[in-house]
From TrEMBL:
Gene Ontology biological process: L-proline catabolic process to L-glutamate
Provenance organism: Natronorubrum halalkaliphilum
Protein name as it appears in the record: proline dehydrogenase
Gene Ontology MF terms: nucleotide binding; proline dehydrogenase activity
Domain of life of the organism encoding this protein: Archaea
Gene3D superfamilies: 3.20.20.220
EC number: 1.5.5.2
Amino acid sequence: MIPPIANRFVAGESPAQALDHVRRLNGRNVKAIVNLLGEHYDDRPPVRSDAGEYRALAGDIANSNLDACLSIKPSQLGLDLGEDVFREELEAVVEAAADHGVFVWIDMEDHTTTDATLDAFEDLAREYGGGERSASDQGSDAGVGVCVQANLERTRADVERLADVPGKVRFVKGAYDEPADVAYQDSTRINREYRDLLEYAFEHYDGGIGIGSHDPAMIEHAIDLHEEHGTDFEIQMLMGVREDAQYELADDHSVYQYVPYGDRWKSYFYRRVTERKENVWFALRAILGR
Ligand code: FAD
């Protein structure tokens, strides 16, 4: 069982607990991106098991009429075992999710995975679309999206390439420690890249831009760009981070909360707690009972 201290960042260990959390979010006008925690599997059984859980989850989301989609790490679906394994498992999840009208995001991992991830995304987006409503999916928003990282030097070119692909694109600053020959190291530069990428996307994309950031300056920039160009966008933030802002922004914008769950929660929780000193204090206070 997840200790109360981790409940702030992780929705529980079971799909039912995750969906209970999604129901509460939907009640406050916030949609959900559900992620089963798991990554870097080096044999097939956990890949098969997680892929099966995602397929079942898509059915549960549809049957419970929840406003939620899925988000999956490539190495959770076998990328470390080979691109063919990853593609086979991912396509089966996207197909099952599409049957239920559920959208699937592909998270982006470190720079060694970018080509394989974008190639798989592009093929699937051309087949399943990018979340636009269609008669065949009974008015729901099936399709695929992918994440791009502003810290990687290659991303400007990737973002231009993706302008011709129908899927949605989530913009993040980048969570991985990348080497200096492929990635900007300085946060001022990464912020500038992030702004520039948004400017390009709002001007050239047909729709479906995800702002995966808690940064008030970047969210404000996206809102201004939306007002200028009219391009559709959604704000995406993590469970447990700036939740008051999520509820407030949801009054005027489409807001999604990224909701992780599953029994592999410890390393995710550790990352969240250690990324900001305020969170370390929060954890210590909870442990000391104050
Ligand atoms: P930062 O640059 O960390 O901070 C900027 C400002 O935002 C801060 O000064 C503060 O005002 C505010 N802020 C940030 N964090 C907090 C906080 N905890 N509490 C209060 N205020 C805060 N990365 C990937 O590499 N691949 C992915 O697939 C991916 N998916 C993501 C999906 C979502 C929905 C989100 C939100 C992030 C994702 N990330 C992903 C992580 C991302 O790359 C960043 O590492 C992470 O979001 C931190 O950057 P930031 O833009 O939120 O803000």
